[in-house]
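Q: Got a minute? One more chain.
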Amino acid sequence: CRRTRRVRRRDRYRYQRVRARRSRCRNHRCDGRVTAVEIQSARRIYPILGLLEPLALEFAFPRLRKPHLQAMKDANTALEKALEQDDARAAAYADAHFHGVYLCEAQNSELEGILNQLKTQHLRFEIHFWKQRSTRLESALQHTAVISALEDGNLELAKQHLTLNWSRGPE
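A: Always. Here it is, folded:
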């Protein structure tokens, strides 16, 4: 029917306009700056992550096996490589993959949902954090300490290192 075709064309045109407007806005916002609001938000979020991440590790501990620890090592290696190349975005994603290994094995969808929501809120801050040279190598070393403690079967030490890892938040 002609009327249906006209409506479809009009809707397609509107969709294209909205999509173009969104891409312009997205490009405009992504200028690499972190606002004071994001830093304040990160200051509120990091202590929560510092408490919930070790809890996720505790839930996951009985299920963590060599392949999981190897995945964590691989993610940490990718993090170190991204840091050597000054690729903040790759570093942020490698860090997220490291933490995602035990979060997935925690098999607690509610906890996973809360943590993912909090982490999504401060992704831009994380990318900014990985651009700073002063503290970023500490995180890779803390990841190594977490892996070593897990390999030794020492959950409490791994949780301490993980809490320390999240205490490095915004200064």
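A: The two ends are 63 Å apart (CA to CA).
Q: Perfect, thanks.
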